[in-house]
C-alpha cells in the first residue's frame, strides 16, 4: 500500500509543536565542536509520548551511516528490545535520504514527518536526490510521509553561521 493511502493523518498542530521541539534540540549542536543540522525524534503515534531523539554523528563517529534518523531508530529499537517500531512516528529536521527512509520502512514506522527538504540539504552537502515519499511509494511496506513542516525554520539549521563554517570543512564538497 503506498504512503499516500487512505488513513493518512495529515499535518497537525502537534506535528508543528514536535518539529519546534526537535529544532531546539538539534540547534543545541551549534554550540558543540561537531554541529549538525540533522536531528530526529521518535514518539508513540497515539499518545505522543517521546521515546528517543538523536542528531547526526557522521563526523564525530567517522561513520557515513550515522545519520540522525538511523541513530534514532537504533536507539528506539534497543530501548524497546524489538526491531519493529510499528505504532511510532519519526520527526526529522530534514527529509530523510534514501538510506534513512528505507530504514524507517524496515523499522515499520507508522509515519515520518520532516522539516527541510532533501533539495535544501543538497545546497550544503551531498545528497541522494530521491524524495522520501518516492522511496515509500516504491516499497511494499507502508509508512506515511508528511512534509515539509516548518521548512523555513528547519532550514535555518543549515544556514546558521557555525554550520556554514562546518560545511566548508566537510570533505564531501571538496
Give an account of the 3D structure:
By secondary structure, the protein is an alpha/beta fold. Helix content is 40%, strand content 16%. The protein has helices at 13-27, 58-61, 68-80, 98-106, 118-122, 132-137, 151-159, 161-169; strands spanning 39-44, 50-55, 88-94, 111-116, 144-146. It has a five-stranded mixed beta sheet with strand order 2-1-3-4-5, sandwiched between helices. A hairpin with a 5-residue loop joins strand 1 (39-44) and strand 2 (50-55). The longest helix has 15 residues, at 13-27. The protein is globular. The termini are far apart. The model is unreliable at 1-8 (pLDDT under 50).
The largest beta-sheet arranges its strands as: 2-1-3-4-5
How many helical stretches? 8
Secondary-structure-derived class: alpha/beta
Mean pLDDT: 92
Helix content: 40-55%
Strand portion: 15-25%
Label the overall shape: globular
Radius of gyration: 15 Å
Biggest beta sheet attributes = 5 strands, mixed
Helix-strand pattern, N to C?
HEEHHEHEHHEHH
In whole angstroms, the N-to-C terminal distance is: 41 Å
Task: Tally the beta strands.
Answer: 5
Unreliable stretches (pLDDT < 50, length at least 5) are 1-8
Amino acid at each position: 500500500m503506498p504512503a499516500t493511502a487512505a488513513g493518512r493523518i495529515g499535518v497537525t498542530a502537534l506535528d508543528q509543536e514536535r518539529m519546534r521541539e526537535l529544532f531546539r534540540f538539534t540547534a543545541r549542536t551549534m554550540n558543540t565542536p561537531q554541529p549538525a543540522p540533522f536531528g530526529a525524534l521518535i514518539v508513540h503515534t497515539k499518545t505522543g509520548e517521546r521515546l528517543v531523539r538523536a542528531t547526526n554523528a557522521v563526523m564525530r563517529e567517522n561513520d557515513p551511516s550515522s545519520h540522525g534518523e538511523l541513530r534514532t531508530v537504533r536507539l528506539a529499537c534497543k530501548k524497546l528490545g524489538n526491531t519493529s517500531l510499528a505504532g511510532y512516528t519519526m520527526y526529522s529536521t530534514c527529509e530523510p535520504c534514501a538510506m534513512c527512509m528505507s530504514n524507517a520502512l524496515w523499522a515499520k514506522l507508522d509515519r515520518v514527518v520532516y522539516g527541510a527538504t532533501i533539495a535544501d540539504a543538497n545546497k550544503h552537502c551531498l545528497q541522494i536526490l530521491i524524495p522520501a515519499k518516492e522511496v515509500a511509494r516504491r516499497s511494499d511496506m507502508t509508512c506515511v510521509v508528511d512534509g515539509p513542516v516548518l521548512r523555513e525554520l528547519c532550514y535555518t539549521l543549515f544556514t546558521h553561521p557555525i554550520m556554514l563554517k562546518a560545511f566548508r570543512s566537510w570533505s564531501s564538497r571538496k
